[in-house]
Structures are given as C-alpha cells and as structure tokens.
Amino acid sequence: MRNDGSPRVVIVGAGFGGLTAARRIARLPVQLTLIDRRNHHTFQPLLYQVATAGLSPGEIAAPIRSILRGHSNVEVLLGEVVEFDLARKQVITNDRELDYDFLIIASGATHAYFGHEDWEPYAPGLKSIEDALEIRRRVLLAFELAERRKKVAGTVELPLQFVVIGGGPTGVELAGTLAEIAHHAMSHEFRNFEPSESKILLIEGGPRVLATYSEELSRKAEAQLHRLGVEVRTSQMVTKIEPGAVWVSGERIPSAVILWAAGVAASTLGRKLGVPVDRAGRVLVEPDLSIPGHNEVFVIGDLAALNDANGKPLPGVAPVAIQQGDWVAETIARDLKKQPRRPFHYRDKGSLATIGRAAAVAQIGKFELSGYFAWLAWLFIHIFFLIGFRNRILVMIQWAWSYLTYERGARLITGSDELTGWTQSQEIHDPSPSELHSR
C-alpha cells in the first residue's frame, strides 16, 4: 500500500469489533492495515453448529481479503502481534514493525481453565474453526467407536456419555444439540448400537443455567434441556478432568467426550500494553474506549473492560464488540475533523440463546420469549448478521433441510481416529485374535 502521508490506522484482530471498525474506517481518508493470525473472519455464534456437524466451516466464515477487497486504502496482513511500543507508536509482529497514528486492539478472548490448563487436551473449548472441527471429530468418533465396540465385544463397557462443563449460552447450545444428534440425527443408522441410549450431562457451578438471563428464562431453558434428554446438574464444581472422565464433588463420571464452556480469558495482548487490567486480563479503558495516557490507542470487544450506564460490566458478546467497532471508527473520524470525542454508550438490544430444535430463550428489554418463537427470532437474527449474501443463503438452506429431516449435513470425521480415554483405555480395547477365538 502506497504511503501518501494519510493517517495510518492499524487494527489487530478481525473479529466482530475489528472487522466492523475496519469496514467503517476504510471509508475515511486514511491508510488502514488489518492484522490477524487467520485469513478469515468467523461468525462465532454459530461455531457450535460446526462442532455438532450442522454446518460446514465455509458457511460461517469468510476470507478477510474478500470482505475488504473493495477498498484500495486497506491492506490485510496474516501475522501475529507480539508486542507494542507505545512511545514510538509501533506494532511489533513476528516479522515486522508497523507504524500507526491510531491503533485499535480487538484480539478477543480465549478459553479460561482457571489455573488448570492441563485440562485443555481432555476438554476442548470452542473459540475457533479449529476448535469446532476437533469437537466434531470427537463427537462423531465416539458414536463410531461405540458401534465398533458393540460389534466386536458385544457390549460398550463404558457408557457413551457426553459431558459439557458450563451452563452459559455456549454450554446450553452444545448440550441441547448433542441430545438432538443422539436422539434423532443418528437414529436408525447404526446396527449394533443405539445412539439414543447415550447420555448428555451439563454441569454448571452456579445455581442455574444462563445466569445472565432472568430466573424465569433460566428455569424454562432448563426445562427445555430436560425435554431434549439432557441431565442438568447445577451448583456442582468440576474438581478434576482426566482422560475419559470428569470428577465432580468426589464422583468420577466416565465420558467419551468432555467439552469446556465454563469461562473465557482476555487475550494476552492486553497485558502487553502496560496499563491496568482486571482479573480476567481485560484492559480498563477510558469512556471513549482509549487506554489511559494514550488516546490514539483503543481497545474493544472481549479485551475491553467497561461498565454500562447502570454500573454493570459490559458482557463479552458480539453486539458489544460491533457497537464498539462502530464507535471507534466514528471517534477517529471526529478526530480527523478536530471535533470533540464522546463517551461510548452501549445500546442493549436484547439477548438470545438457542437450546435445540424450536427451543430457545430470548430477553429483549422487558419482553421475554421461550420456545419456538424465541428460536425463530434467534435463527433469523443470526442469519441476518452473517458476512456475505452467499453465507446467508447456504445457512438458510441447510437449516431448512435439518429442520425437515433432522439431518446433520457435515458429518465428516477428519484427522486422528484416537479418542482420549477410550481408544487408550484398558477397559475398552479391541480383542486379540485369541480372545475372539475363545468367544
């Protein structure tokens, strides 16, 4: 990109906040550089659908370059930011240094295991396409291994159980969809094993699922989970995770697949700015979303810590990041015009969480919905916000087909055929030829 003396804007991260800011700032008389570790933007609210074989990755993701290709003043760099030099106004990546006049950091969050990072290999979280594909591999492989064990050994020694840890929106979505897969999508496809005999367990450390929703909606969400066949345990803490099992209050629960949805931690880039952060590593930003002492540096999305008008912390959800991306773009435009800045105000348009087929809860202002109409609202709102017309059409077709047939259209197992805790277990093993002969 040619240096013509225009102000230089660097954005780190192409999530909801970063990409929204980029699309707005690209219209300004600036040079814009967007850096991300991946070449695509992912619509994270639908990652669980990829993880449970409902959608393919290409239906919820789009190349960053194709999204921004219409703007000649924009360059996209594939790379990882490792440091900031605020005094020299430079972003330092793994192979270069980039100067900036304005910097926007929107690097998001990652999984939080609360000091138990050794649990991650046994209980993956869901933050990226790679995470979703690994979860999909484990879930589908569990059914295949159960069928194989039943065929060879005549029984599945360990119960085919799925454990989801965390009763927030992601955990509820995963648990509900796993129940649908076991009881509907996989039915009549296996000859030796009955998928509907599988158990899905949702564990929540707090007193109720969907704690950020009203108590009434939480109760309805739990009731819908029960109807789908999910066992919900609240006020129970996971104390240990090992290959093929979860420990809860001294009880060892065998599990073919363990999924983590219990918490997130801010990107480590926040701590590299040298400004105050909260316990989760989120940067304590000023009312205009800039950082203390450097009004040319903005932090938005999951990495930013800011309270709303009622003094409550803003949630780490897509609408917050999108509005902040818009706001920072407007703030930079005002700076270029020498106009005064204004503080950011979040407009809460409501919350939606899906549980399963025609099952969801919605909280929009004083109005609360649950069941089919909440699910319809969730469905159309998420399709509307997908990047690209092609994505919306593909997702709509896939969902219509799934609704009519219960089919999961992306049931591909790729990668390793090992399932930790099952294929390595001494309790479940393929019999030797001599063992088969003795039978």
Structural class per helix/strand content? alpha/beta
**Helix count from the secondary structure assignment:** 10
Main sheet summary: 6 strands, mixed
Rg for CA atoms: 23 Å
The counted number of beta strands is: 25
Reading side by side through the largest sheet, how are the strands ordered? 5-2-1-9-21-20
Number of domains: 2
Give the low-confidence spans: 425-439
Distance N to C terminus: 72 Å
In what range is the share of β-strand residues?
Answer: 15-25%
> In percent, how helical is the residue content?
25-40%
CATH fold call of the largest domain = FAD/NAD(P)-binding domain
CATH C-level name of the largest domain: Alpha Beta
Shape: elongated
CATH architecture descriptor name of the largest domain: 3-Layer(bba) Sandwich
What order do the helices and strands come in, and which of them pair?
Elements: E1 8-12, H1 16-25, E2 31-36, E3 40-42, H2 47-51, E4 61-63, H3 64-68, E5 74-78, E6 81-85, E7 90-93, E8 97-99, E9 102-105, E10 109-111, H4 129-153, E11 161-165, H5 169-185, E12 199-203, H6 215-228, E13 230-233, E14 238-242, E15 245-248, E16 251-254, E17 257-260, E18 264-266, E19 283-284, E20 290-291, E21 294-299, E22 304-305, H7 318-336, E23 351-356, E24 359-364, E25 367-370, H8 372-385, H9 389-405, H10 433-438
Parallel strand pairs: 1-2, 1-9, 2-5, 9-21, 11-12, 11-17, 12-13, 19-22
Antiparallel strand pairs: 3-4, 6-7, 7-8, 10-18, 14-15, 15-16, 20-21, 23-24, 24-25
Helix pairs in contact: 1-7
Structure description:
The structure is a single chain. Strand 11, helix 5 (169-185) and strand 12 (199-203) form a beta-alpha-beta unit. The N and C termini lie far apart (72 Å). Helix 1 (16-25) runs parallel beside helix 7. This protein is of the alpha/beta class and 439 residues long. The protein has two domains: 8-37 and 79-112 and 264-336, 3-Layer(bba) Sandwich (FAD/NAD(P)-binding domain); 117-262 and 351-405, FAD/NAD(P)-binding domain (3-Layer(bba) Sandwich), CATH 3.50.50. It has a six-stranded mixed β-sheet. Strands 13-12-11-17 form a four-stranded parallel β-sheet. The radius of gyration is 23 Å and the shape is elongated. The protein contains ten helices and 25 strands.
